[in-house]
Amino acid sequence: MQSPSKKTFPVLIFWIIVGWVGFLILPWYGIEDFWTFEWLVDGYPLDSDYAPGIFLIAQGEKLWLTPLLLPLIGGLFAYRLGKEHALYANILILAGAFGFAWLIAQGFGIGLRGWSYDWLEAIFGPLDDRQFGMGYGAMLVSACFLFLLTQGIAARGAVNGDVFVVSSIGFVIAVVGVFVFFPIARMLIAAFITEEGSYSVSVFFSKFLSNRLWGLGCLSGGKCGAAWNSLALAVLVGFLTTVLGLVFALVVTRSGFRHKRLLRALTVLPIITPPFVIGLALILLFGLSGSVTVWVSDLFGIQPTRWVYGMPGVLIAQLLAFTPIAFLVLIGVVEGVSPSMEEAAQTLRASKWQVFRTVSLPLMRPGLANAFLLGFIESMADFGNPLVLGGNFDVLSTEIFFAIVGAQYDQGRAAVLAIVLLAFTLSAFYAQRFWLGKKSYTTVSGKGDSGIHPHMPNRLAIPVFISAGVWALFTIVIYVMIVYGSFVELWGVNDTLTFKHYVTAFSVRMDAEGLRWTGSAWNSFWTTVQIAALAAPLTAAVGLITAYLLTRQTFIGKNAFEFGTMLSFAIPGTVIGVSYILAFNVPPIELTGTGVILIVSFIFRNMPVGVRAGIASMSQLDKSLDESSLTLGANSAQTFRLVILPLLRPAILAALVYSFVRAMTAISAVIFLVSAEYDMATSYIIGRVENNDYGLAIAYSTALIFVMLLAIAILQLAVGKTNIGRRMSQPKP
Amino acid sequence: MKNTFTVISAGLFAALMAAPAMAADKITYYCSAQEDWCQLMANGFQDATGIKVNMTRKSSGETFAQIKAEASNPKGDIWWGGTGDPHLQAAEEGLTEPYVSPMRSELQDWSISQATSAGDKTIGIYSGALGYGYNSELLEKNNLPVPACWKDLLKPEYKGHVQMANPNSSGTAYTTLATIVQLFGEEEGFEFMKGLHKNINQYTKSGSAPIKAAARGESTIGIVFMHDAVKQAAAGFPIKVVAPCEGTGYEIGSMSIIKGARNMDSAKKFYDWALSKDAQALALEVNAFQVPSNKMAPTSDKAPDLDSIKLIDYDFAKYGSSDERKRLLKKWDDEVSTLPQ
Question: Which residues of B153-163 are buried (b: 16+ CB within 10 A; e: fewer)?
């Protein structure tokens, strides 16, 4: 019943060829400006900077690469033996595992200054050589080893011998391992390094127990530690965004409110707004010389204060920014509560209020917990708003930033702070799972379910409408002010209307060399668009493959696999940023200063959303679809590509849009990873804000908002609608 | 699938096209001065030499951190601008390269003496004195007295009106701390900082932020370099600049070549060019009111005249060293920043 062995061979020979190409043709080490192909005419293949692995060995250099030839030959040997041979699987496993392990060991063992560890030098004596970060050659060879290994495992009969599934699992584990677990581990280690470079537990505790972290001075008039500040803020934001999100969800689903579309549009806006814009608008409205402040103080003769700087300001900005996320989570849940349950309760003479309190609300528990968790994590990770509005209210995310970039420059302290932050978010992640427990919240079953949701009881409706109205009005005012602010000379000082800021940022000039992008924002703008456009499809791809494995396949360690892939969701961007510089500034993987590190950080930060979206849509597709495809002779790769993917368009779109938008608006991880060549829009804007150049910052942000709206529209067109229409014929793919 | 593939390939194509089509000399330029000045210097150098400039602007503290993090594998070539201390610190830690420029004969003495004290690893490109500025409208509105000396800032009526940067994150604020310590002695200096702490409404992260807040009316007094205050006044904000009567410290904005620079020749070209009269004259185009180190470079009449200000004999070697800096910052952290306000 399995497809004949012929099917397996093209895959095997493909990866063997890839491995040999990597070893024989492509430069082994990383090259700056690889894609200019200057290296081709600059001494390749003999120059040791550009030489492929085999040329290095032949010239007697980097001899530690020689053992890699063994597994490469081993792969060929297995191919000759053929699949039926008893040793086939074992040889592949041995070759893959040895090759991969050796590659990692030599990468970590030998660095920029020869041996990376003293004990290696003690054993082998001094090494008068060094190596840089791995390049494309090494990348292809390691991919070859990885897939030799997975094919060997598949040949041993794992997951019914399905090569595609085993390889996908291996691939996801490898990339998540390299780009999530490895950096986090590096960061954990950095927390224990003393200034002299040795390891010590006491250094961790002296930084961990610092008063600046855990001080409780605010209870007696002083300042509290950043850890308490962050925690208090995050709990408040999590709670309030959940309440506000629920309010909106109720207005949309359970009231006679007419303009639901408008409300939906309003909730999308903050998601596509660069993070500190709201903070800026708050300053311009409520700061010491803000429009509202001045107006109120003139009217009532109240002395203006700086109340907006600090916790109140950050809290308001975060509520504005994160309530929509809670709303998007809750609307599905509120809609999902089966009306028949509520109708049953009403039939049993429960009042509307009783129904809401004892039936509807408890059934929304998973959604409420999710919304709280999201608000909590977003608040913990938020960087832009505390930076602009924080005043003397220190939170972990900004403290981490200034531990790294401040004049004190203390990576260890940044790592310790990041660990505290991570501990908070992971505890929340865990607590959420624990609280939801194993209760069943399923109310939608296959049976007919045609009821209508009852309207809210009055005592609920009135406060709900009031708070939704206030929030909506506030949001509208803020956004009107943002657009207005981008068109005035100097808000609050000189209110002449002008296009000056847009001209400074986005002017173009025609001259002898053709079109010149002279505006100061173009550079970061194009980088951002490119990186977002590259990261989005890759994020969607990795996310959907993972979702496919999680919903459609069973294999050993699936729970751990799921936890691992969802983990990066609970890791704040600041932590990702810090851990990435610690992990990827030195060989074996050297990525700082490149565009790749930005793309990679976006992929792994946003992947969990792709996974979630994929899981949600895939659970709706009946397994019989896959089964019939497999019965008809397709293998699982073909099934995934031809049957499942086309049905997943909504999930693909969601993942694409989300990762594109996040890549354009993210700041917390980005601020650590940008470089001269790859500057991102958000880091450029924050530079303008620091420089008192609010007009330009706001104009740029406004432009970004419109670009994102446009991009979402284009994506929608490109991906198209799923036609799961039962009566319509299936269009051609 | 097909569509996803199209998107991916379109993206890859875009990335390929974006890579520079041909090779040329280039330089990675870390800049710690104000953005428009940085940009002007980058463009000016590119126009003058045809060398392609990759610029990153970060504060001097951030840039120092970056250079230190990249020390085993330097990415930058030249570091221009920003207060001298981090440059001296980098020199002390061996992160920068010694270089004696043929332009030295045209430079002011303070610039050369800074260079020799640092083993030629850094050089002064401009200098500016510390002071403070106040928003005259807000001062009047709140019926506050006009300040003239450092000690005036301790008056209780200024409570909640003074802003300065956090010395942990800003070179300007560290210069303030070191100036006060040199002016009043360490003991009395810290008493001053404690008294000042009571009046501070916010320790900002960036050095010039306090005067910008004052310009916008978000705060009344900002402790900054005087040329930053002059700049806000020149931009039309109601800012008055004060040179404190007790005397004050100053900074030497510096430039260093990063050790192990990948484009060493370009870096040296930039170095020589940045010390030239023409390059230093660019400062006036962006309202940078510092005093240039090239004797022949023109100065603005709005710039504070260093001769008329009582300058202390600032000990750059001592207060620029990392041990002294760490000690003072820790003391400030422990004794001042934790006090209730």
Answer: bbeeebebbbb
Q: Which residues of A touch B11 (CB under 8 A)?
A: 530, 533-534, 536-537
- Of B173, B99, B169, nearest in space to B130 by CA: B173
CA dist B260 and B30 (Å) reads 15
Residues A689, A693, A697, A702, Cα dihedral to 10°: 140
Contact B72 A593 (CB under 8 A): no
Q: Distance between CA B95 and CA B72 in Å, rounded? A: 10
Cα angle B86, B88, B89 (rounded to 5 degrees) comes to: 60
Contact between chains at B4 and A211 (C-beta distance less than 8 A): no
Q: In this predicted model, what pLDDT tens digit does every residue of A141-199 receive, in sequence order?
A: 999 999 999 988 988 887 778 888 899 999 999 999 999 999 989 888 888 887 666 77
Q: Is A111 helix (H, G, I), strand (E, B) or coil?
A: strand
Residue B146, class by beta-carbon neighbours within 10 Å (0-12 exposed, 13-18 middle, 19+ buried)? exposed
* Nearest Cα to Cα of residue A190 among A44, A3, A32, A400: A400
Cβ contact B325–A656 (<8 Å)? no
Q: Which residue type, as a one-letter code, is found at position B120? A: D
Which of A593, A645, A688 lies nearest to residue B75, judging by beta carbons?
A: A593
Is A223 close to B338, i.e. CB distance below 8 A?
A: yes
**Cα nearest neighbour of B203 on chain A:** A392
Residue B256's nearest CA partner among B65, B126, B120 is B120
User: Looking at the complex, does the CB of residue B58 fall below 8 Å from at least one CB of chain A?
Assistant: yes
Residues 6+ away with beta carbon under 8 Å from A182: A583
Q: How do strand B123-135 and strand B239-242 relate by DSSP bridges?
A: antiparallel
Query: Contact, B288 vs B33, CB < 8 A?
Result: yes
Of the partner residues A289, A407, A534, the one whose CB lies closest to the CB of residue B61: A407
Q: Compute the distance between CA of residue A654 and CA of residue A632 in angstroms, rounded to an integer.
A: 31
**Distance (Å) of CA A483 to CA A388, A502, A705, B146:** 19, 12, 11, 38
Does B7 reach chain A within 8 Å, measured CB to CB? yes
Secondary structure letter of residue A181 according to DSSP: I
What DSSP state is assigned to residue A157?
A: T
How far apart (Å, rounded) are the C-alpha atoms in residues A464 and A353?
Answer: 14
Chain B positions in Cβ-Cβ contact with residue A583 (cut-off 8 Å): none
What are the structural domains of chain B? 2-127+252-303 (3.40.190.10), 128-250+321-337 (3.40.190.10)
Give the pLDDT of residue B144.
92
Mean pLDDT, chain B, integer = 85
Q: Number of H helices and number of E strands within chain B?
A: 14, 11
- The mean pLDDT value for A194-216 works out to 77
Give yes or no for residue B134 having a pLDDT over 90.
yes
Asked if the Cβ–Cβ distance from B39 to A211 is below 8 Å, we say no
Chain-centre distance of CA A613, in angstroms? 14
What is the topology classification, in CATH, of domain A226-393+451-473?
Answer: MetI-like fold (1.10.3720)
Q: Could you read off the pLDDT of A356-414 as tens digits, one per residue?
A: 888 888 888 878 888 888 889 889 888 888 988 888 888 998 888 877 766 566 778 88
Alpha carbon A130 to its chain's center: 34
Nearest one of B32, B106, B105, B112 to B66, comparing CA atoms: B32
Residues 167-196 of B with CB under 8 A from A: 167-171, 174
- B218 closest CB neighbour out of A222, A288, A593: A288
Q: Tokens in use for B305? A: 């005249």
At A263, the pLDDT band (50, 70, 90 cuts) reads: confident
ipTM of the complex: 0.72
Distance from CA of A363 to the nearest CA of B (A): 37
**What is the residue extent of each domain of chain A?**
5-156, 226-393+451-473
Q: Which of B28, B78, B169, B177 to mutate to test the interface with A (most CBs of A within 10 A)?
A: B169
